[in-house]
Write a structure and sequence with these properties.
Chains A, B: It comes from Porticoccus litoralis. Chains A, B: It catalyses: 7-phospho-2-dehydro-3-deoxy-D-arabino-heptonate = 3-dehydroquinate + phosphate. Chains A, B: GO terms for molecular function: 3-dehydroquinate synthase activity; metal ion binding; nucleotide binding. Chains A, B: It is found in: Cytoplasm. The structure is a homodimer. By secondary structure, the first copy, chain A, is α/β, with parallel strands linked by helices. Chain A has two domains: about 160 residues, Rossmann fold, CATH 3.40.50.1970; about 180 residues, Dehydroquinate synthase-like - alpha domain (Dehydroquinate synthase-like, alpha domain), CATH 1.20.1090.10. Helix content of chain A is about 45%, strand content about 20%. A four-stranded parallel beta sheet of chain A has the order 3-2-4-5, with helices on both faces. Chain A has a two-stranded parallel sheet with strand order 1-8. Chain A has a two-stranded antiparallel ribbon with strand order 6-7. In chain A, helix 6 packs antiparallel against helix 7, helix 6 runs parallel beside helix 10 and helix 9 packs across helix 10. The longest helix of chain A has 21 residues. Chain A is globular and about 60 Å long. The mean pLDDT of chain A is about 90. Chains A and B meet through helix 3, strand 6, strand 7 and strand 9 of A and helix 3, strand 6, strand 7 and strand 9 of B.
Chain lengths: ~350, ~350
């Protein structure tokens, strides 16, 4: 449960949830439903979801798959479909897919007729542990990631862990980056658990996955409860993201997966924390080792020069009045948002080739 | 003052306000300002506003003028400019112009980095008495007006009545349609005042204008206070709009001005109310006469056939679960939102050529 007063909503986590109408139907407000999915996910799960929606007017919008389609043009296809099928203000949008589908469907729901209801059915690890929870919705702009969006909460989140079985290995591993993030920013015990259980997670042991998804959502829900609109502490969820977004923008969206860029970004932020004297060399190596075990990148590609990197970091949303603020680690398991770091450390770090 | 708890904001109405920093500067949060205006208004008032913004980073986005540019593509030009000039989350957008500029700037502010502050400086009568107050922001979609948007309140509204001096006559008269609306839906005394003072208003008597803008904003603010997100009573502000939007969509945006379409729509809604027996023939003629005095249209163009009209009315946002709801008059000065009207009356009315 994400506790946000009258915008609170439940998160259902478990196996075979897609066949159970009791988690979905009570959260649909009217008689119309628009399922938004993509070309990869729809063939796998769309008919299953449609089956439990008998009695509703069910329409679908199938988007192309990939971060590079997360833009205003693709968003407009959802609006086109809603208007063509005469969906009214009581309609419910359902996001069936990964983070990109969830972010776009949520933003479409926030804007369509100035706001209609929506439900998240995340089908990737990344979406289940991170993007589907907390109400951040957005599309990208050529000049910056997630620059156009809204805070808009879903009616409920349904994380069916069975859907992870069809997830390609690379995407699954990218999702683990965000799982590791919770350990780093606020849950040292969980980080230790991950060190001991990464083998099981990589082998997709259902019990280990269920625990990791639960624990991740629990951490995220607590942070969102404390600070829904990111006035303060919520920014720690962006650990590794200022570096990561710069990587994604420099390469063009879609080269690296989001989780891959975040993994590299987390190591860079940890290294800066180490140079500040907050994290030991030993702890930093634990971070590198855990992410390398997931076969994730642990530094930005060498092709991005320092100048470009700095300039891309400075358009990041964490910049307040010209001052670059970063999420750094005070210790392993405790993050802080600060502009109080040595800019020279950052500059030499960006020139380093690790 | 619009009373909305922690989202309350003041409305300043008067002469020469554009030269007074005390109404503007206290409502700017950071050091960056983006003024959004259009090609018609910018040459008249942009430099004036810039003068009182010394000390801020002031950037501008000048949009083409007209309802037909109120779409996602034009919206994106505002995002382009904000990102090119590296505006961060503490930036303040200023809408300097009519309803189209206000609606787009407000929606851009709602979406940019998931929400930044904005200020309304309406320069048309329509915007001063209606669109700048209440937080409705949106762009159009080819399939429907204002279909993509947000409820998003400004920090303040500055209505400088001097700016109406440069307003073309046709636009000024179109704005009077919304003024008349407040009399019809909830302020019978104001309607009587308008009948007695329309000559003065048409002659642009400053005192009469100031009174009409004040009284209109007062009415609007009270309705918005009661129902910010249009769950109920706020819908009465859409009196004439379901008919009016159908006219605008059928013709393509920009053929008739918004206020002209609303004038025709209000007469059609009044005529339907008359057929329901709620308004007398005599009162209906008072409405027609007052609008004709403003040289406003008092019926839809004959070129729109009944079939088209019905179908366009049914995608309007006031349709709930397939039932068309209309704002009608229970009497002159009292509106109601209802689906409880005789559909045959509506059909024959749409075939009538008045």
């Amino acid at each position: 449960m994400v506790d946000l007063g009258d915008r609170s909503y439940p998160i259902f986590i478990g196996e075979s949830l897609l066949s159970k109408p009791e988690h979905l139907c009570p959260f649909i407000s009217g008689s119309q439903v628009m399922i938004v999915s993509n070309e990869t996910i729809a063939p796998l799960y769309l008919s299953k979801v449609c089956q439990i929606l008998a009695g509703y007017q069910v329409d679908t919008t199938i988007l192309p798959d990939g971060e590079k389609f997360k833009n205003l043009d693709t968003l407009n296809r959802i609006f086109d479909e809603l208007l063509s099928k005469q969906h009214n203000r009581t309609t419910t949008l359902i996001a069936l897919g990964g983070g990109v589908v969830g972010d776009m469907t949520g933003f479409a729901a926030a804007c369509y007729q100035r706001g209609v209801n929506f439900i998240q059915i995340p089908t990737t690890l990344l979406a289940q542990v991170d993007s589907s929870v907390g109400g951040k919705t957005a599309v990208n702009h050529p000049k910056g990631k997630n620059m156009i969006g809204a805070f808009y909460q879903p009616q409920c989140v349904i994380a069916d862990t069975d859907t992870l079985n069809t997830l390609p290995d690379r995407e699954y591993r990218a999702g683990l980056a965000e799982v590791v993030k919770y350990g780093l920013i606020r849950d040292a015990d969980f980080f230790v658990w991950l060190e001991s259980n990464m083998e099981r997670l990589l082998a997709r042991d259902p019990e280990a996955i269920a625990f990791a998804v639960h624990r991740s959502c629990e951490n995220k829900a607590k942070v969102v409860h404390e600070d829904e609109k990111e006035g303060g502490v919520r920014a720690i969820l962006n650990f590794g993201h200022t570096f990561g977004h710069a990587i994604e923008t420099a390469q063009g969206y879609g080269e690296w997966l989001h989780g891959e860029a975040i993994a590299a970004g987390m190591v860079m932020a940890t290294e800066l924390s180490r140079r500040m004297g907050w994290v030991s060399e030993e702890d930093k190596l634990r971070v590198v080792n855990l992410l390398e075990q997931c076969q994730l990148p642990v530094w930005a590609p060498k092709s991005i020069d320092r100048q470009t990197f700095m300039s891309l970091m400075s358009v990041d949303k964490k910049v307040l009045d010209g001052t670059l603020r970063l999420v750094l680690l005070k210790s392993l398991g405790e993050a802080t948002v600060t502009s109080d770091f040595d800019a020279d450390y950052l500059r030499t770090l960006l020139s380093a080739e690790e």
